[in-house]
Write a structure and sequence with these properties.
mainly alpha, single chain, 78 residues, 3 helices
Length: 78
Amino acid sequence: MIRKSLCRDIQLVNQRLNLRQETFQRTKARSNAALHQLNPYLRIGVGLLAGIMTSIVGWRKIYTFVGASFNFYPSLIK
């Protein structure tokens, strides 16, 4: 009885993990497609600006700012 329930629990967890991995792969593919649509010079410029800001301000403050920006971004879209 216990073995059957443990096997069932493992299968359920495995199914949830597979679903999360599929969702992650789809999100990754969409992000890569969006990134490749950008102008290469824009990507280089943003990378250069990010590098300069990181060296001036520090990576911890930049990381906190970007995290807060991602949390705030969905409210700007609506």
